[in-house]
Amino acid sequence: MLPPETLEQARALLEFLETRGATLATAESCTGGLIAAALTAIPGSSAVVTHGFVTYSNEAKRDVLGVPWGVLEGYGAVSESVARRMAEGALRRSGARLAVSCTGIAGPGGATPGKPVGLVFIGAARADGETRVLRRVFPGGRDSVRAATVAEALGLARALG
Q1: Which of 41, 101, 122, 157 keeps 20 to 30 A from 130, CA to CA?
Q2: What is the C-alpha separation between 99 and 131, in angstroms, rounded?
Q3: Which helix or strand (DSSP H or E) is residue 93 part of?
Q4: Could you give the CA distance from residue 16 to residue 156 in angstroms, rounded to a whole number?
Q5: Structure pTM?
């Protein structure tokens, strides 16, 4: 369950985008659809939200979003390059004006040298070609990391939207 402040943040983002006639797609890995869930929990979200892609595996990132296999192998799924390509792929596949993505290690396992639990890359891409990616390391357990990722993704979408 997401905290009320995150749902309020989702509501504000939807209102912001709707006043601009903008549409939004999500491309999620470590959050497993929580960004889309936060957005679609708001009545009327269908005026803005077009697609929600949950691409948990590398194969899904490649097949659904078009992330090149060489990028996945070269940088790893949890990387700036993959978050960027996930957001850009969601734009291409959805036709939305804005897309937000995330890939990370929510834990408790999955950490590798240089990639600790809590490491998340959050991307946002606009149809005009601008893409931004944030690198964050969130503290806490799996639920905390995922909730913080949702909040940060909503904030990045607002900043780029």
Answers
A1: 41
A2: 9
A3: helix 80-94
A4: 13
A5: 0.97
Q: Which among 75, 77, 130, 70 is positioned nearest to 99, based on CA atoms?
A: 130
Longest Cα–Cα distance of the chain, Å, equals: 44
- The neighbour count for residue 159, using CB atoms within 10 Å, is 10
pLDDT in tens, 25-72: 999 999 999 999 999 999 999 999 999 999 999 999 999 999 999 999
Over its C-alpha atoms, the chain yields an Rg (Å, rounded) of: 14
Burial of 51 (0-12, 13-18, 19+ CB in 10 A): middle
| pLDDT tens digits for range 118-142 | 999 999 999 999 999 999 999 999 9
**CB atoms closer than 10 angstroms to residue 96:** 23
